[in-house]
Structures are given as C-alpha cells and as structure tokens.
Amino acid sequence: MKIPSNSELIDTAQAVLHPHHVGDRLFGDVAATLVTDSGTLYSGVCIDTGCGTGFCAEHAAIAAMVTAREYRIVKIVAVWRNEEGALHVLPPCGRCREFVRQIDHANIDAEVVLGRTASATLRELLPANEWPQPLD
User: Fold this and answer.
1) Strand locations in 38-134, DSSP E?
2) Can you give the residue ranges of the CMP/dCMP-type deaminase domain (predicted)?
C-alpha cells in the first residue's frame, strides 16, 4: 500500500472544500481527508450550526470510513482556506483527537499532517491518553 504524501493528502482534502452560507452559518469551509490501513481515502467537511449540533470535518471523514466498515486511520489532514485564498492545514481540535483515538486503539499512532513537510503522531498530540490506574 502506498501512503499518500502530505501534499497529496492536502490536495485531496482541498478538492472537497466548498464553503456554503446558510444564514449566518458556514458549511464546508473545513475539509478533512484520511487514509486507512487498506489504503482507502475518505473525505468530509464540517457543518457549523447555531445550536451546537454541527461537527468537524474529521468527524465527517471518519463517519464515511466507519460506514464502509473500516476503523484504522494511518494518516489524516484537515484544511481551511481563508478569505484571501490562502490554504491552511489545521491540527485537529481536542474533541477530534479523542474521537480518532476512540474509533480504534491503534489510531493513537495515526500520522496527523500539520503541513506539507510536518506531521506528528496522535500520541504526540494527545498526551496522557491512557486510562488512569486506580488510586487505591
């Protein structure tokens, strides 16, 4: 299995960026793409809602992956384009970091793309991730 380079994964995520305004809300302004241990790519976009029921782009990509009965993430990226048109790689928020970890225990070693030449493992981004030992 060939794992896409950071640039290839960024470009794949960028391809599904299609911001759409609904009132004062913005849908699809962040996109994520992940690659599984089978080499399959899944993408998704964020949905921002006024009542807090929306979700991040990583959640949408992971939902597509789980729908296809895959669970192991090898590499993941999220991107956003600002109003001037500059593309940014976004590190996953804390909720997404924990979500990735809980989908499959092996995902703690997933590579998180932080730029065209930068990445870190989820383990590095989510320290103290083990369930604590009892105090007594």
Assistant:
1) 41-47, 73-81, 87-89, 111-113, 119-121
2) 28-105
Residue 135 lies in a domain: no
Q: How far is CA 11 from CA 7, 21, 79, in A?
A: 6, 23, 9
The predicted-structure confidence for 54-100, as pLDDT tens digits, reads as follows 899 999 999 999 999 999 999 999 999 998 999 999 999 999 999 99
- The residue type at 29: D
> Which amino acid type is present at position 48?
D
The structure's pTM equals: 0.93
Measure the CA–CA gap between 85 and 83, rounded to whole angstroms.
Answer: 5
- What separation in angstroms does the CA of 43 have from each of 12, 24, 38, 133? 8, 25, 15, 36
Q: What is the CATH number of the domain that holds 114?
A: 3.40.140.10
With respect to residue 132, please indicate whether it lies within any of the assigned structural domains. no
